[in-house]
Amino acid sequence: MRDDIRRYFITYGLIAACAFMFILLTLGGGSTNTRTLIRFGANVSLLVQEGEYWRFFTSMFLHIGITHLLFNAYALLALGRQAEYLFGHFRFLVIYLGAGLGGSWLSFFAHRQDLIVAAGASGAVFGILGALLAFGWRNRAFWRAGLLQNFLVVLVINFAIGLAPGSQVDNSAHLGGLICGLLLGVLLRRRPVYPVRPESGAEE
């Protein structure tokens, strides 16, 4: 496990950052408390229009409730190590942050007249998924391993959940992250194309 953390230190660092911010939210008034979320930097379109653009960044490290945190942490663990292995540490971090900002921006644009409080790493996670799709689109190993098919199924299911009546899932953030991830995946893809699976230890 220790070797796994050293090998994918960006992935584990991002998960730790989200967990740390969740603790601060909890101690500061609760992760589901609207006032607390706004105070710690959740994405609120009306406040962004007043010049608080930093919320695009801070909101991707905040989560509303423990279930929200655990779901995104698991998704980041599952996809992040694969992407960090394929793209390298720095490129992976650029993809995460770029996709997270893209998701925050589209969420802001879609809800610019609303008082919706948005937070979470979902846009960044969808960006990682988009980058992996861009990386493996012409890689036969991805198709043979069934990875691309699995990624596409995950995309469809998550967007369908967001369209369900009463859903609080922000598909605009997902879409913004996915588009940015696809673009960054194409721009930052390393050559030659590396094997599909990370080294031993990554699956622990």
Question: Topology of this structure?
Answer:
Elements: H1 2-7, H2 9-28, H3 34-40, E1 43-44, H4 45-48, H5 55-58, H6 66-87, H7 89-110, E2 117-118, H8 122-136, H9 140-145, H10 147-163, H11 171-188
Antiparallel strand pairs: 1-2
Helix pairs in contact: 2-6, 6-7, 6-8, 7-8, 7-11, 8-10, 8-11
- H/E element sequence: HHHEHHHHEHHHH
Distance between the termini: 7 Å
Task: Indicate the low-confidence ranges by residue numbers.
Answer: 199-204
Percent of residues in β-strands: under 5%
Radius of gyration: 17 Å
Structural class: mainly alpha
Strand order of the largest sheet: 1-2
Task: Report on the architecture of this protein.
The chain has 204 residues and is mainly alpha-helical. It is built from eleven helices and two strands, in the order αααβααααβαααα. It has a two-stranded antiparallel ribbon with strand order 1-2. The radius of gyration is 17 Å and the shape is globular. The C terminus is likely disordered.
